[in-house]
Amino acid sequence: MNFVFRRASAADFPEVRRVTREAYVQAGHFTADHPYMGVLDDVEHRAEHAEVWVAKSAGAVVAAVTLTFRGQPYSEIALENELEFRMLAVDPSLQGSGVGRAVVRSIIEHAQRLPGIRAISLTSATFMERAHSLYRSLGFRRAPERDWYVPGEDELLWVFRLELEGAACDRSAPN
């Protein structure tokens, strides 16, 4: 599937909300009334404090993701020189079609163009096995020393990290 990967505009926010909500609920990650759904639904807040990106095909949002950096409000695990991505969601009608893989590849390509970014990090719930397979197949490695628990809950979250080859910070270094 061909798509354009770009920062979301305010006009995209309703579709980002829909795709994200449907992806998380239909996959069984959360119930529709789970408190975290409020965080996922507040696309406007995310866009104000992080970067919300979309994959659009034929004018429709087919996937959405939030990009953030160390020290920003939506960053949970990013270290210095890391891009962190969160809340990756693919329209449920397109899951299994390769859209998620293509979006993660687009994130990698974007990160490689960012000055100073040497790695990408992400958090994933232990039960998100399909996502883990995708991340591993694209070169992400578990960083178990960085795993963490959701505050106030007994939910362990795994951290994955990808070292970038040919990162913008390395290409710009003098010879």
From TrEMBL:
The lineage of its organism: Bacteria, Bacillati, Actinomycetota, Actinomycetes, Micrococcales. Residues 3-163 form the N-acetyltransferase domain. PANTHER family: AMINOALKYLPHOSPHONATE N-ACETYLTRANSFERASE-RELATED, AMINOALKYLPHOSPHONATE N-ACETYLTRANSFERASE-RELATED-RELATED. It comes from Arthrobacter terricola. Keywords: Acyltransferase, Transferase. InterPro entries: Acyl_CoA_acyltransferase, Bact_Acetyltransf, GNAT_dom. Coiled coil: none annotated. CDD domains: NAT_SF (cd04301). GO terms for molecular function: acyltransferase activity, transferring groups other than amino-acyl groups. This is GNAT family N-acetyltransferase. Transmembrane segments: none annotated. Pfam families: Acetyltransf_1.
